[in-house]
Amino acid sequence: MPRPTKWRRVTFIPEITFFKPAGIPLRHLDEVRLSIEEAEAIRLKDLEGLEQEECAQKMRISRPTFHRVLGSAHAKLADALINGKAIRIEGGNFGMAIQRFRCGNDSQEWDVPFEKMVAGQPQVCPQCDSPNVHPVRAPGFGFTGGGRRRRTGRRW
Fold first, then answer.
1. To bridge 55 with a disulfide, which of 44, 60, 125, 126 should be the other Cys (CB 3.0-4.6 Å)?
2. At 10, which helix (H) or strand (E)?
3. What is the sign of the dihedral through the CA atoms of 23, 24, 26 and 29?
4. How far, in Å, CA of 32 to CA of 114, rounded?
């Protein structure tokens, strides 16, 4: 049985998710389905002009995996453009990038989607309107006590 596909981190979901050639009724068209993570790969590499290593880091996948996702997306787009097919963007294995914040007064925590973070981080707590707001570190960052264990001569 193959391993399940890991979720990819996505920071943008397009508002327009369907494209078709002009002048051809939809009932006469074949359709190509582009996953959300394939659209994100194209956006990062082709639209923003980032290097593959940077793109892979942003999506939290390996560089070879990013290369495969991008290659699949390019092949689907080429098929749709050359053969006159409609393009639908939907589905896939992805999670939206969010940032968690905590109020220093009442310890209230809330999530802010990436789209809102572009404008800047929240200035006040939505519960008590306190300006004492701080981002919460994501798991896996900072000191966690992990690392290589040293043998102390005892058997475990």
1. 44
2. strand 8-10
3. negative
4. 28
Helix 52-59 vs helix 63-83: angle between axes, to the nearest 10 degrees? 100
Which amino acid, 155? Answer: R
| Residue 58, SS3 per DSSP | helix
Identity of the amino acid at 66? F
pLDDT band at 83 (very low <50, low <70, confident <90, very high): very high
Task: Tell whether pTM > 0.70.
Answer: no
The residue extents of the domains of the chain are 8-95, 97-135
Measured from the Cβ of residue 35, the count of other Cβ atoms closer than 10 Å reads 20
What does the pLDDT look like over 90-135, one tens digit per residue?
A: 888 777 777 778 888 888 887 777 666 656 677 788 888 888 888 8
Provide the 8-state DSSP code for 70. Answer: H
Candidates 2.60.200, 1.10.150, 1.10.10, 2.40.230; CATH matching 8-95: 1.10.10
Q: Which residue has the tokens 């939505």?
A: 126
